Amino acid sequence: MNARQRTGRLGEELARKHLESKGYRITDTNHRCPLGEIDIIAELDQTLAFVEVRTRRGPSMGSPEESITARKQAHMVAAAQEYLQAMDMEGRQWRIDVVAVELDRQDGLVRLDVIENAIEL
Question: Does the predicted model carry a pTM greater than 0.85?
Fold first, then answer.
């Protein structure tokens, strides 16, 4: 595993713990489908949340939120719809959230924000 992958995994772990502390029930992680990967699938108040975790180390690459392109947004929506169809959950209420994680050079948490309904459906 390279440094970029380690940073991503750490961000996902921090995001999972934070979501659980806020009452989310994690139902799946790193779900792969032909359209990509869904980092975290969780439930909160009868709503299924498909969560994209974006982790950055320092400001040189911009904020985590800025890294989500229109193409990535389209893939996230398509992957969520594919999951709902495959799991026979097409009638479920759902949304796409983003967890933005910023770390310092020593893996210390600088910021973690949950952005609910981050992508318009």
Answer: yes
